């Protein structure tokens, strides 16, 4: 078996000399590497012994019928990063090449999906072309295709129909992201596992578009124009394997109805959700991660029972909303709670009670004062390792820190003193961050930290009186 490797421009010289028949004479040629050259057209004839051909990153505009046709052993053809249009491809490019499994045609100038692709194809790359439409029947024979990449084209719903994908009975991964779809297409094949529809202009999900796709596990719909009312409530019915749904960066005004019952991860950030009703989350029993950051939630519009059924929830993100008060009734299963960048001025009595699994709570950039937080709130959190209260209005270090605490973020508050006893109850602490407070040199008593044998970072740094605020009497506070 001869393995040919031709990388350099010098080799092209040789190649030009060989002309077309040159390759045909290499009767045992199996692997042909001509990637990263300056070829403008492919050899007219390649030998039937060929197994793999790599012409990626050339300037090809023309392929001939016997370039890749009549190669019974041909398994892979790489043609990405060339200048191919449909005019440069023969109508039956792979006649008699019925072992082809991998074909890459990404980053060319195709407007139409090539015809007559061999049924043996396993993976087909057509991303970053100029595809506007997929001709009827283009994929009908590809019953072995597992992966189809069509992202970054100009496909619209008008350019395909209900049958475009329906015969792809082995297809598991379909990427239609970054196209011009306005509706989730119908007729999707039933064995799909992963469906990329992000970065389109999708406004609606019809009731029957997804329900046949019984094996769907990942549905990516972020960066579209979905509103909750244009998602049919039966859209996800029966999709028992669907565990990950990304709908961030849409126009959702509330949590859509009928979300998949077995969802584990729900990314709803960057929408316009202004309300969490009592039953909006009530059927999502298996949810472990809910990200509602950067919406328009306000405290009066979050029902106190809204989270009651989320008994497995581990991560909740409510950052970047308009909450004034930490919601009551959060699941006790929580391990990570992020509510930064709101207007929190209250952690009401009992809001954190029973959260024995909570390891990390991020409450930075709010309006919390010492008395906004009920006495003993932190002490109860027996698994807590990270408490972030930076960017609030605290004047003292909280006195009820839990023993488990490892990282305490208090930068950008109004703390002016560190009492000797401040860290008596936190022997495990590794990092204390106190930059940008109102500490003066004599307010920091070294003995407060002396017993903390695990302490790795003590950041009092700049922005305190130690350096640059010396003598600034206005900053004095009780
Ligand atoms: C490829 O096969 C088709 C259908 O069998 C035939 O019409 C066509 O002439 C063939 N093309 C070549 C280049 O052999
Ligand atoms: C596609 O499916 C929709 C809904 O099932 C149906 O209304 C429409 O007639 C179908 N169109 C075609 C071309 O089959
Ligand atoms: C996207 O599709 C719409 C129709 O759905 C069409 O009006 C618009 O021109 C298309 N945009 C591009 C960039 O193809
Ligand atoms: C929510 O999503 C944002 C964006 O992906 C991410 O940065 C953040 O960490 C997520 N929140 C949680 C709690 O995982």
TrEMBL record:
<dbReference type="InterPro" id="IPR026906">
    <property type="entry name" value="LRR_5"/>
</dbReference>
<protein>
    <submittedName>
        <fullName>Podocan</fullName>
    </submittedName>
</protein>
<dbReference type="GO" id="GO:0005615">
    <property type="term" value="C:extracellular space"/>
</dbReference>
<feature type="signal peptide">
    <location>
        <begin position="1"/>
        <end position="16"/>
    </location>
</feature>
<dbReference type="Pfam" id="PF13855">
    <property type="entry name" value="LRR_8"/>
</dbReference>
<dbReference type="InterPro" id="IPR003591">
    <property type="entry name" value="Leu-rich_rpt_typical-subtyp"/>
</dbReference>
<dbReference type="InterPro" id="IPR050333">
    <property type="entry name" value="SLRP"/>
</dbReference>
<keyword id="KW-0433">Leucine-rich repeat</keyword>
<dbReference type="InterPro" id="IPR001611">
    <property type="entry name" value="Leu-rich_rpt"/>
</dbReference>
<keyword id="KW-0732">Signal</keyword>
<keyword id="KW-0677">Repeat</keyword>
<dbReference type="Pfam" id="PF13306">
    <property type="entry name" value="LRR_5"/>
</dbReference>
């Amino acid at each position: 078996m001869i393995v040919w490797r031709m990388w350099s421009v010098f080799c092209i010289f040789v190649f030009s000399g060989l002309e077309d028949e040159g390759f045909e004479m290499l009767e045992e040629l199996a692997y042909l590497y001509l990637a990263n050259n300056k070829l403008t057209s492919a050899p007219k004839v390649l030998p039937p012994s060929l197994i793999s051909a790599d012409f990626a990153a050339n300037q090809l505009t023309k392929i001939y019928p016997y370039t890749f046709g009549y190669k019974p052993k041909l398994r892979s053809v790489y043609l990405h990063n060339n200048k191919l249009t449909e005019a440069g491809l023969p109508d039956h490019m792979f006649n008699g090449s019925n072992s082809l499994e991998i074909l890459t045609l990404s980053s060319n100038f195709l407007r139409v999906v090539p015809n007559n692709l061999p049924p043996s194809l396993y993976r087909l790359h057509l991303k970053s072309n100029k595809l506007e439409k997929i001709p009827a029947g283009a994929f009908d024979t590809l019953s072995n295709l597992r992966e189809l990449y069509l992202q970054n084209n100009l496909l619209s719903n008008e350019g395909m129909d209900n049958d475009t994908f329906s015969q792809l009975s082995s297809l598991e991964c379909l990427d239609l992201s970054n196209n011009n779809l306005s509706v989730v297409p119908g007729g999707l094949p039933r064995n799909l596992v992963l469906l990329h529809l992000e970065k389109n202009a999708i406004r609606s999900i019809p009731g029957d578009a997804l329900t046949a796709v019984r094996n769907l596990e990942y549905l990516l719909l972020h960066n579209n124009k979905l509103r909750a009312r244009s998602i049919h409530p039966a859209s996800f019915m029966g999709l028992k394997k669907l565990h990950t749904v990304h709908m961030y960066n849409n126009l959702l005004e509330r949590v859509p109805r009928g979300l998949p019952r077995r969802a584990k991860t729900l990314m709803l950030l960057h929408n316009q959700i202004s309300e969490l009703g009592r039953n909006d989350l009530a059927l999502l029993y298996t949810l472990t991660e809910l990200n509602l950051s950067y919406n328009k939630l306000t405290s009066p519009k979050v029902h106190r029972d809204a989270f009651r059924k989320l008994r497995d929830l581990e991560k909740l993100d409510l950052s970047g909303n308009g909450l004034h008060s930490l919601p009551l009734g959060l699941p006790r299963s929580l391990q990570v709670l992020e509510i930064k960048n709101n207007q929190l001025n209250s952690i009401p009595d009992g809001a954190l009670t029973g959260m024995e699994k909570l390891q990390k709570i991020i409450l930075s950039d709010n309006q919390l004062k010492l008395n906004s937080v009920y006495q003993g709130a932190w002490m109860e959190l027996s698994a807590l390792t990270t408490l972030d209260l930076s960017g609030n209005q605290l004047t003292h270090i909280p006195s009820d820190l839990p023993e488990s605490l490892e990282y305490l973020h208090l930068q950008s508050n109004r703390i002016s003193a560190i009492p000797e006893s401040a860290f008596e109850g936190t022997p495990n602490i590794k990092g204390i961050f106190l930059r940008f407070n109102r500490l003066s040199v004599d307010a920091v008593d070294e003995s407060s930290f002396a017993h903390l044998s695990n302490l790795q970072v003590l950041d009092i740094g700049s922005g305190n009186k130690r350096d640059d605020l010396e003598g600034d009497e206005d900053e004095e506070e009780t």
